[in-house]
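User: structure tokens for this one?
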Amino acid sequence: MLRAFTRNYEDNSTEAGFEFTFYCDNCHDGFKSSFIESETAKKGKGLRALTQGAGIVGSFLGGRASSAGWAAERGGSVLSERFNGMSPEWHKEHENAFGMGQNEAQQHFHRCHNCSTYVCDACYNEDAGLCIKCAPRQEVYVAQAHAGAMRRNIDQAAESAQVWSGTIESKTTVCPSCGKPAGSGKFCNNCGASMALSSCPKCGAEVALGVAFCGSCGTSMQQAAAPPAPPPGQCGNCGQQNQPGGRFCGGCGAPLAG
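Assistant:
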């Protein structure tokens, strides 16, 4: 089984040649080694275009080159299955090419003297000789701490900030006429009764319909709902003015208030 200097690598080799990707142990960016053509393949037949698209010169890749390859190539048993049927000569070439690929890739990695991981240039603190997990760069850590303090200050200011200065009014949600949920409109959704607030006859405060007493001064709201008594002699039914002392209206015959 091939062993890489980094903890994870990808074997991109084919029957036509050999190529390997070695990954940073911290950020998982990968370096792909130069393609080495197989001498065994040159002697074979029917291998047209197998090397097409292969990287002739090594290059550094951002991120994992192939998520499927990343997951599969770590297993030695998977590699053994994949290269079953290859000739002993090919396998010998494969091992030699792997060593050459490692030598090429190691020039682009640094070993942390504390945790012994191999990391790329971006994940290595040159001043400390350690990876950035063991020794974060000072300017980066200061910026991170500053950003964290700023977020905490904003959160604290937001907790004490007054962002709404309105008043909360009571709304009638049950219709006083039909007793069913009335909705949020001006009229009941079921019977059409008005859902407007009434005014207290004493202090003028707005009171929800169906409330018996004013919440501000305690005045009975039934007094506000009762119509005023008609003047003496005026019929409360048809409105005709009658002579004082009469008991029945001369216009409609309705009893007059005494």
